[in-house]
């Protein structure tokens, strides 16, 4: 399994790369090869006097390479130019990555300019599952907020096809998952759940699958605004990662449900894993 790890070489993104526990979790789910990617923005010119941006970034990536190789992974490095989220997505597609990882400090607009905006743009456009690794705010030497990436999962579902695809990631996440909470937020219209079907029963069916893998599982059916209720569940259960599909129900509701996943990326206290729809051939 290959993963792309995007870094802007800030202290925040460095925390993701240098966390031994996070690297151990990636190994448990089957990641063997990590591609470190840093993007020099298009508005930074190679000819700016006294600064060799590409050389500096390659030197920084070489330091990160040593850390990750010591953890037992094969490592490739990429220094590219362009729009960060587009280049990151392009490399993920080219190498056939199964996961893209990006660090983000989260809520503060002032502290979330560079890698934060990249995380939000990747949430809209990613073609692979995207792990947004939450980093501490308001400190010069930040660490990851929750080290054990997949130990306690919060899975939010609207019973759409893409939510089912997100659930399928447990086929490999289960090797690092001990506990899971399955959440459904009822709204006035749930087009992908037949009227006669009980959401609690549907969650129980999913829970049974996880319990067969030895994952301790509980369910929670809520009512209200999807993003608000998912974030409330995160605050209550304190998962290490919240797992959601990045799109839901139908094309007509795509923008609405896309905004829910983006809202969760921006406002969640812990890590968030987004699973995009399957690409049409």
UniProtKB/TrEMBL annotation:
Name of this chain's protein: Universal stress protein
SUPFAM superfamilies per the UniProt record, alphabetical: Adenine nucleotide alpha hydrolases-like
UspA domain mapped to chain residues: 4-132, 150-276
UniProt source species: Natronorubrum aibiense
Family: Belongs to the universal stress protein A family.
CDD domains from the UniProt entry: USP-like
């Amino acid at each position: 399994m290959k993963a792309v790890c995007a870094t802007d070489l800030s202290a925040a993104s460095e925390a993701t790369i240098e966390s031994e526990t996070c690297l151990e979790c990636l190994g448990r789910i089957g990641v063997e090869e990590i591609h470190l990617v840093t993007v020099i923005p298009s508005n930074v010119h190679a000819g700016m006097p006294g600064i060799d941006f590409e050389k500096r970034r390659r030197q920084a990536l070489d330091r990160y390479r040593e850390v990750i190789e010591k953890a037992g992974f094969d490592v490739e490095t990429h220094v590219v130019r362009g729009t960060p989220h587009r280049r990151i997505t392009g490399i993920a597609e080219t190498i056939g990555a199964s996961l893209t990882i990006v660090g983000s400090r989260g809520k503060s607009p002032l502290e979330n300019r560079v890698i934060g905006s990249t995380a939000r743009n990747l949430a809209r456009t990613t073609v692979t599952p995207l792990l947004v690794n939450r980093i501490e705010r308001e400190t010069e030497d930040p660490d990851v907020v929750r080290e054990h990436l997949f130990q306690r999962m919060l899975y939010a579902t609207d019973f759409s096809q893409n939510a089912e695809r997100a659930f399928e990631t447990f086929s490999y996440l289960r090797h690092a998952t001990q506990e899971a909470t399955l959440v459904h937020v009822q709204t006035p219209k749930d087009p992908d759940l037949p009227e006669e079907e009980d959401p609690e029963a549907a969650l129980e069916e999913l829970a049974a699958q996880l319990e067969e893998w030895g994952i301790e599982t509980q369910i929670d059916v809520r009512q209200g605004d999807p993003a608000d209720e998912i974030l409330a569940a995160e605050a209550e259960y304190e998962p290490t990662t919240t797992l959601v599909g990045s799109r839901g129900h139908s094309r007509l509701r795509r923008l609405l449900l896309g905004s829910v996943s983006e809202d969760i990326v921006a406002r969640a206290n812990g890590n968030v894993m987004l699973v995009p729809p399957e690409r049409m051939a």
